[in-house]
Amino acid sequence: MTRENAAAADVFADRAVLSPAYVPDRLVGREEELANVEYALNPMIFGREPDDVLVHGPRGTGKTACARYSARRQTRYAREQGLSAGCAYVDCLRVSTGVRAIRAVANQLNDAAATDVVIPESGLSTAEYRDRLRAILETGYDAAVVVFDRLDHLGSDVDAVLGHGAPASCVVSHIGVVDGDAGTGGIDDAVRGALAGTEQAFDRYDADALAEILRDRRKAFAEGRLDPAALDRAADLAAADGGNATTAVALLRLAGDRVRGGDGVVGPAAVAAAAEAVDHVLLQDRLAPLAEHARLVARALASLTREHGGAFRTRRVSDTYAACCRERERSPRTERRVLDFLHELARLGLTEQSTHWGGRADGNYKTHRLTAHPATVLRALGDSPGEKSL
Fold first, then answer.
1. What is the predicted pLDDT for the residue at 388?
2. Which alpha helices (DSSP H) does the chain contain, by range?
3. Which residues, 6 or more positions from 29, have their beta carbon under 8 angstroms from its beta carbon?
4. Single residue among 201, 232, 247 that ends a domain in this structure
5. Residue 298: what pLDDT?
6. Which of 49, 301, 310, 356 has the most CB atoms within 10 Å of its CB?
7. Against a cut of 0.85, is the pTM above it?
8. Cβ contact 256:220 at 8 Å
9. What does the alpha-carbon distance between residue 256 and residue 253 come to, in Å, rounded to a whole number?
10. How far apart, in Å, do the first and last CA atoms of the chain sit?
11. pLDDT exceeding 90 applies to what percent of the chain?
């Protein structure tokens, strides 16, 4: 490619390849884990009951990609055997409740013209949505796989979602993906109990594995616009930051954005420069799915932390959140709901919670400490660093 052509062309051939939602055509560095998950699903190919699967491990270790990849591939194999098979994917952080999770699965699997089943946006109980999902499975499928990403965000609704039961005519496997280490008690007992089947743990990547993953993403860049040394630099930086593949891919994406529009090549220097902004971008990605009031609670806690530092009791966070709502002409939720939102932030790793005994006067109470820098959180939420604290 000539310099003139390079200047006219976008640095990216397909930027979506570097998106957090991208599922690659092949999974590198996870052959053993992939084989174990697919072994659990394999009976569905022959119309027999597959296992449910609990996939867990640190963030950025390929759990979601492996779950979605396995679901798609096993569904395709079942169809090749003459079965009517389908798969669905639900991000439980985005749907937040059991009713919405069941409705999302039903909508993805439903062919209303064939099933004559209507899935309304609201107005039905959990049991009624569950019955309609069962009717869809009974009418349209011999086998199905449902991936519930960040399953722990359903909280007490896990049993209602996973315990619906499939009709006798259809075999169903649930794959639950959660961030956490079973060995350190990071997996909720309700989640583990609801997915009593196969467990698959994912470990952190080393630099060699990360480099292999990034080499598989080279097709994101236009010809001549990526220096191969940039892949090793991104892999080394991500390995030093905990072996997170999400970080490694984000470094390439941000480096490409910095070069985009010019005639330069994405090299190690662009990756190193991108490392300064990657935490902010990844935090934006983690906050993006949160509902408005969960974001307002995060903003309240970040504002308190910036002003005073330390950890704060639920009531203090709730009062600051209420002030934030009034400023934005929103009706604040109850303190009970604020605590739910704080639990959600803790599951995302954005806060740490502690329980304390305040004596007879106070009883047990919780405190909440922000784990990220408050200015970084406020910027990720769209606030300028100099915005006045509440």
1. 37
2. 3-8, 31-41, 63-80, 92-95, 98-109, 112-115, 126-140, 158-162, 189-194, 207-215, 229-240, 245-259, 268-287, 292-308, 314-327, 335-347, 359-362, 374-380
3. 62, 205, 209, 212, 213
4. 201
5. 95
6. 301
7. no
8. yes
9. 5
10. 54
11. 59
Our count of domains for the chain comes to 3
Q: What are phi and psi of 351, to 5 degrees?
A: -140, 160
Count of residues making up the chain: 390
Order of all β-strands in the sheet with 171-179: 85-91, 143-149, 171-179, 53-57, 198-201
Name the nearest CA neighbour of 220 among 209, 206, 231. 231
What are the pLDDT digits (tens) for 273-287?
Answer: 998 888 888 888 888
Separation of alpha carbons 383 and 390, rounded Å: 12
Q: Are residues 231 and 272 in the same domain?
A: yes
Name residue 368's beta-bridge partners.
312, 353
Residue 306 structural domain? 292-380
Q: pLDDT tier at 28 (50, 70, 90 boundaries)?
A: confident
Helix (H, G, I), strand (E, B) or coil at 336: helix
Q: In Å, what is the CA distance from 53 to each residue of 85, 121, 346?
A: 18, 29, 24
Q: Residue written as tokens 């109850």?
A: 334
Q: Strand, helix or coil at 145? A: strand
